[in-house]
# Entry
Amino acid sequence: MRGCDKRIVALGAVLVACQGGVAAADPSMPGGETAVNWPAVDWAHARVVTVQMIDDRFVPDKIAFQRGSAYRLHLVNAGADVHEFTAPEFLKAIAIRNPNVLERTRLDEIALQPKEQKDLYFVARTPGHYRLTCANHDWDNMVGEITIE
Ligand SMILES: [Cu+2]
# Structure
């Protein structure tokens, strides 16, 4: 190994410098609306809601959001199995800031390996009640309900 340490420090500085302009590049939502259409969302102060996935339950299994508010939904797989946050109608009812957290092959869910954590940033948009399931374990009643008030 030759000395690469100085280059790594320089790369770190570049990464920090780049973090300013992320919001402007957000891709569009399902339905054609983009997150940037929302007036000045302050994502640093998005309300944090944590949902744990265990074998085989969502904790909590009832989740409520306020229409027009910005959220960071923090998903934690605390189980030993792969779990999925599968909620196609809910995902259409929100304006998503980071759609790349969704599964590429299935845009209606977020999959988490054991011990993995993922964040979904969004603004709640359409009031209603939405079904939440884990596509792997709905047979075991790994289901929940999401409300946008
Ligand atoms: Cu599961």
User: Anything to note?
Assistant: The pocket of copper (II) ion is lined by residues 56, 81, 83, 134, 136-137, 142 (CB under 6 Å). The chain has one domain: 5-148. Residues 56 and 137 are 7 Å apart (CA to CA). Helices lie at 5-18, 88-92.
